[in-house]
Amino acid sequence: MDISVIFRLAAIGILITVVCQVLKKSDRDDIATVVSIVGLVIALTIAVTMIGDLFGVIRDIFNL
Question: CA 50 → CA 31, 45, 55, distances in Å?
Answer without folding.
Answer: 29, 9, 9
